[in-house]
Design a protein that fits this description.
The protein is α/β, with parallel strands linked by helices and 386 residues long. It has twelve helices and 18 strands. It has helices at residues 9-18, 58-65, 71-74, 156-160, 165-183, 200-211, 223-230, 248-261, 278-285, 307-312, 325-332, 353-361, and strands at 2-8, 32-37, 46-55, 78-79, 85-92, 104-107, 110-113, 119-122, 137-141, 145-147, 193-197, 215-220, 235-238, 267-272, 286-294, 316-319, 343-349, 368-372. The chain binds NADP nicotinamide-adenine-dinucleotide phosphate.
Length: 386
């Protein structure tokens, strides 16, 4: 038996009844609780891993809050969450040639690729029967793993921050850049202005934009995160100076500041992973022919915009999801040379995973939250522990 975190529909219902459906008062720690799992026998293409470290991800909060859909209920009343992990291979099925015991690997959350490699469903979320990786062990298909680039320059916790967020950022970037380039080719403008709002995915998106030679701007309420990105040449904008866009005046003032920072042009590409209050600010900040791209909905799922305004400004909105299988491999090759994530100051113990989720939801962390799952780490990663 291995320990694994679970979410039940019953726990969600009990907690929601306690707080009278007020999602701001939900205690995630009472919903995400430790359980036990028996590992299934390995099929020929299966790989067994010992999970070493995971990062806290928002889809677990979305599952526990049931704020978009009640995915736990839809999946029969119980799910095992966790769709980002770094682990050590302990056993492989007879037909696995790409991995062997002792390899260090990262997972990805593409649960079932469509004809072009895009996820139809997400692992440990809406993929039926999928078992997540907030667990001591896991059995996965070999197609779900990528070798961890141990010599990329990142430490172990930084690498554990990336399996879900880096492919998302990579996909967002190639979509946004591709859409902009349909409208304005490179020969017309080489250097773009790129804005990202808050968060781990956005910071990686901006690192990629910066690496490709563009001007990158990070609008965040976190001084620690802005400072970390400024060290990489990404300009920080304090979102709290604009009162987190509480009213139209704040959004207008932000628009003015963006114009000032970009010589009157505005942002060619905006990554809005939060929607809600930042959506209008992002649309207002767009340059002519701008692209507003998002794979997230943390602060709001519904958006409303003036389509005539978008039309005359030639602005495009795009909603993306997770990467294709080949895109995941490409994104992993950028660990360390492009993606240098900020990691929260505390590395949480496995038993403290529910607290990590609560603190992430309360926006109290200074970087991406990492949970160390294994007490004993293999010799191959000892030099990567800071
Ligand atoms: N579709 C996909 O494939 C996919 C993949 C990954 C993530 N996502 C979604 O994308 C969203 C962001 O994910 P992430 O991993 O980047 O999150 P993250 O690293 O936890 O960042 C979230 C950010 O939200 C900001 N924030 C929190 N409360 C706020 C508030 N009241 N007002 C304004 N900003 C606030 C904070 O920015 P400050 O620095 O300003 O405080 C924080 O850094 C989530 O909804 C997640 O589910 C989707």
């Amino acid at each position: 038996m291995s320990r694994a975190y679970a979410i039940t529909a019953e726990a969600i219902a009990t907690e929601r009844a306690r707080v009278d459906d007020d999602l701001d008062r939900v205690d995630l720690a009472s919903i995400i609780t430790l359980d036990e799992l028996t590992m299934p026998d390995l099929k020929p293409r299966d790989v067994k891993i010992r999970v070493l470290a995971v990062s806290a991800e928002h889809n677990i909060a979305h599952a526990a809050l049931a704020d978009t859909v009640n995915i736990t209920d839809l999946r029969g009343g119980k799910i095992y969450p966790g769709n980002s992990a770094l682990g050590e291979v302990t056993e492989v099925g007879g037909d696995v040639s790409k991995f062997k015991a002792g390899d260090i690997v990262v997972t990805h959350c593409n649960g079932e690729p469509d004809a072009y490699g895009y996820p139809l469903r997400i692992w440990a979320y809406d993929q039926p029967d999928s078992i997540g990786w907030y667990a001591e062990e896991a059995v996965v298909g070999d197609w779900q793993l990528v070798h961890a680039p141990l010599d990329c320059g990142l430490n172990l916790w930084e690498m554990a921050a990336l399996p879900l967020r880096a492919p998302t950022a990579y996909h967002l970037w190639r979509r946004a850049e591709g859409i902009f380039r349909v409208k304005v080719p490179q020969e017309e403008i080489a250097t773009l202005n790129v804005l990202g709002f808050g968060g781990g995915v956005s910071e990686l998106f901006l690192m990629l934009a910066k690496h490709r030679g563009h001007n990158a701007f990070f609008c965040s309420g976190s001084p620690e995160r802005r400072k970390a990105l400024e060290a990489q040449g990404i300009v920080g904008i304090d979102q709290k100076e604009f009162n987190r866009f509480a009213d139209r005046g704040d959004t207008k003032a932000f628009g003015k500041q963006v114009k000032k920072l970009t010589g009157g042009v505005g942002m060619h590409i905006v990554c809005d992973m939060l929607r809600g209050p930042v959506f209008d600010a992002g649309i207002g900040a767009a340059s002519r022919e701008g692209v507003n791209v998002s794979a997230g909905w943390q602060l709001g799922t519904m958006v409303k915009y003036n389509s005539a305004g978008a039309s005359t400004k030639q602005v495009t909105l795009d909603h993306t999801h997770f990467e294709t299988l080949t895109g995941v491999a490409s994104a992993t090759s950028l660990y360390g040379n492009v993606f240098k994530p900020t990691v929260h100051s505390e590395i949480y113990a496995f038993e403290d995973l529910p607290r990590a989720m609560v603190e992430m939801q309360a926006n109290q962390q200074t970087g991406i939250p990492i949970i160390r799952v294994a007490d004993e780490l293999p010799a191959s990663v000892q030099s990567l522990i800071p």
